[in-house]
Amino acid sequence: MAIRATYIHSTMPKSMSTNVNWYPPCPDPSLTMGLLPHCDRPFLTVLSQGDVSGLQAKHRGRLFGIHLDLI
């Protein structure tokens, strides 16, 4: 990559935290509301997605569905 060796260190905040959320599946999907459109801006996002798709990304004004291979 064409970045300085110190780039990542220089852009990171002086302190960091980790936030982990896990929500069990709802037994009655008709009761779920989902999330409003939002943007996650952390350095790293780890997403564990089950068999229901729904992750989308917008790039240059176009919305794309994201398919993740389950591991």
UniProtKB/TrEMBL annotation:
The keyword Metal-binding applies. InterPro entries: IPNS-like_FE2OG_OXY, IPNS-like_sf, Plant_2OG-oxidoreductases. Pfam families: 2OG-FeII_Oxy. GO terms for molecular function: metal ion binding. Residues 19-62 form the Isopenicillin N synthase-like Fe(2+) 2OG dioxygenase domain. The keyword Membrane does not apply. Keywords: Iron, Metal-binding. PANTHER family: OXOGLUTARATE/IRON-DEPENDENT DIOXYGENASE. This is Isopenicillin N synthase-like Fe(2+) 2OG dioxygenase domain-containing protein. It comes from Eragrostis curvula.
